[in-house]
Design a protein that fits this description.
Blueprint (H helix, E strand, L loop, with lengths): L1 E5 L2 E3 L6 E2 L6 E2 L5 E3 L1 H15 L5 E8 L3 H11 L3 E6 L6 H15 L3 E5 L10 H8 L4 E11 L2 E8 L2 E8 L2 E5 L11 H8 L3 E4 L32 H10 L5
Parallel strand pairs: 1-6, 1-8, 6-7, 7-13, 8-12, 9-12
Antiparallel strand pairs: 2-5, 3-4, 9-10, 10-11
Helix pairs in contact: 2-5, 3-4
This protein binds adenosine monophosphate (AMP).
């Protein structure tokens, strides 16, 4: 059984980003880039399933600029067997990525596709759902546990105040939530091994997909700066301020 895992190159979660001065987007020039954290969880889960004998091959796929190769090498170092880069310099929006992944799914015929629940740069939470719709596959989003047996995936997903368990007929799409697993540390020997693993590069044209943007960003702005707080002398003064200034009482 093959598993395809989608991995996105995003600004590292520890980098504090801001809006560009002209408001046309987020300033990520020279920012450290890493694998989207939910995708690390997705790769870890796929590798664990292979290690447990539930899968035979894990294929990591990334769509974007040539530097996504670094992200794919990280996936290979975690334990993916091979990688596919769909290279494009366009600003790839979730629908375009879902179409590219659908084309890869058609080509590779995996039994399971694992994506992150959301990319921490665009916070879209759309790609997995769109892929499932385009490929006409059952989906389980926000997975906190995945088991594979008898041609089915059993997925627990976090819902308000509890957990829901779904059974999906394979092939299926699963998106990962934070509690699914804790990704392993990538060791130096595995980074070295990853350099030798196969990485294929395709273009959207090779897959017959038009990735033209459908959305236009009108403006990106930062939240208003918080003004400094004040110390009040006593409870009476606090209540007074809450009534007259904050107007919350
Ligand atoms: P989003 O819908 O943008 O929040 O992304 C959800 C998930 O889709 C991510 O966690 C990735 O697994 C996958 N994904 C989104 N964009 C890409 C991309 N450019 N390349 C590979 N996977 C992606």
């Amino acid at each position: 059984m093959k598993i395809v895992v989608a991995v996105k190159r995003v600004v590292d979660a520890n980098v504090k980003v801001g809006a560009k001065s002209d408001g046309t987007g987020v300033d990520i020039a020279n920012a450290k880039m890493s694998m989207n954290p939910f995708d690390e969880i997705a790769v870890e889960e796929a590798v664990r399933l292979r290690e447990a004998g539930a899968a035979t091959e894990v294929i990591a796929v990334s769509c974007g600029v040539a530097q996504c190769q670094e992200t794919l090498r990280t996936a290979l170092a975690i334990g993916a067997d091979r990688a596919i880069l769909v290279e494009s310099n366009e600003d790839l929006q979730p629908l375009a990525v879902a179409k590219l992944l659908k084309a890869v799914v058609d080509k590779e015929q995996p039994q399971l596709v694992i994506l992150g629940k959301q990319a921490i740069d665009d916070d879209s939470n759309q790609t997995g759902q769109m892929l499932a719709a385009l490929a006409n596959l059952p989906q389980a989003t926000f997975a906190s546990k995945v088991t594979i047996a008898d041609g089915k995936a059993t997925v627990s997903r976090e819902v308000d105040g509890g957990s829901e368990t779904l059974s999906l007929k394979l092939p299926a799409v699963v998106t990962t939530d934070l509690r699914l697993n804790e990704p392993r540390y990538v060791t130096l020997p595995n980074i070295m091994k990853a350099k030798k693993k196969p990485l294929e590069t395709l273009k959207p044209e090779d897959l017959g997909i038009d990735v033209t943007s459908r959305l236009k960003t009108i403006k990106v702005s930062e939240p208003p700066k918080r003004s400094a707080g004040v110390k009040v002398a006593d409870v009476k003064a606090l209540v007074e301020k809450l009534k007259t200034e904050a107007k919350v009482l």
